[in-house]
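Practice problem 4.
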């Protein structure tokens, strides 16, 4: 059992260190800390200093990042994850949450039209369930951006909003 010395510092014996090494992957941090009579924070810090880790993160490969950038507007997160499991497999596999997190990190966003395209593809693939036979296919939503107080421009499918703003930037500068 670990001993608390001057100023609340905890000293571990050789038996304690061996116990941590043997059981770190088998037991929870709380149960090991309870067995040693220390706080779980102290145990985590000691295990980290010993080089022990419960989970090792796998970084994204450049191919996976490129694939995500090329396909995020036309495919859903689950579809991208299943395709990345084939293209660039990981030990634990890919999930839609991995895709969402990386899209946030890279600043990738889908506009209304991109979301509509993904939903329509999912309807056609029947991954959203059976399509409603009584309803017509919904019309693609129109996206408008305001250049200035008098001018608005429609963003066509596949166009990037930033590029459209840049194209019409001269109108905004002349009205000021």
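Answer key:
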């Amino acid at each position: 059992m670990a001993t608390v010395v001057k100023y609340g510092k905890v000293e571990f014996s050789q038996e304690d260190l061996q116990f941590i090494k043997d059981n770190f992957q088998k037991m929870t941090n709380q149960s090991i800390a309870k067995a040693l009579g220390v706080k779980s924070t102290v145990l985590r810090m000691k295990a980290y200093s010993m080089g022990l880790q419960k989970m090792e993160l796998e970084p994204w490969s450049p191919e996976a990042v490129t694939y995500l950038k090329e396909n995020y507007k036309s495919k859903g997160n689950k579809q991208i994850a299943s395709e990345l499991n084939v293209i660039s497999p990981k030990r634990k596999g890919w999930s839609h949450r991995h895709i969402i997190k990386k899209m946030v990190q890279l600043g990738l966003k889908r506009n209304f039209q991109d979301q509509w395209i993904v939903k329509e593809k999912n309807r056609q693939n029947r991954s959203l369930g059976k399509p409603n036979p009584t309803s017509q296919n919904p019309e693609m939503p129109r996206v408008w951006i305001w250049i200035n107080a008098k001018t608005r421009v429609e963003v066509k499918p596949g166009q990037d909003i930033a590029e459209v703003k840049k194209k019409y930037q001269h109108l905004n500068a002349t009205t000021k």
